[in-house]
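Quick one, tokens below:
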């Protein structure tokens, strides 16, 4: 099973990227970041005044209601991307014959709870091992 960046978005700005787009994404564990955001963060981290300003308040404290509402779909898209990635990760584990019991232990839940959460998208629908 190959996990790809196809159809992914930048977890920070929400722009679509990956193969077939001009926006290159890097990252892992569900979160993806585009080059523009990396450059922006690099600029913040390496400029003392900008860094101090960024540390002073959270972005949502400076947003008006319309900006907050406009950002909500991006937050949900990023959350959905991470949920899909978790399913892909479990599919990868199952393709390597990792048992539902082992997956459940890693998640701190029972084998059944892991299976109920992740088997619906998994190609193997059995609750074996």
């Amino acid at each position: 099973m190959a996990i790809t960046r196809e159809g992914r978005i930048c977890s920070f700005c929400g722009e679509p990227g990956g193969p077939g787009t001009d926006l290159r994404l890097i990252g892992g564990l569900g979160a993806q970041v585009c080059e523009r955001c990396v450059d922006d963060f690099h600029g913040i981290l390496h400029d003392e005044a900008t860094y101090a300003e960024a540390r002073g308040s959270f972005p949502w404290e400076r947003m008006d209601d319309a900006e907050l509402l406009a950002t909500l779909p991006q937050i949900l898209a990023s959350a959905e991307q991470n949920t899909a990635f978790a399913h892909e990760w479990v599919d990868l584990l199952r393709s390597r014959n990792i048992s539902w019991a082992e997956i459940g232990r890693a998640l701190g839940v029972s084998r059944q709870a892991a299976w109920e959460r992740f088997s619906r998208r998994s190609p193997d629908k059995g609750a074996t091992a």
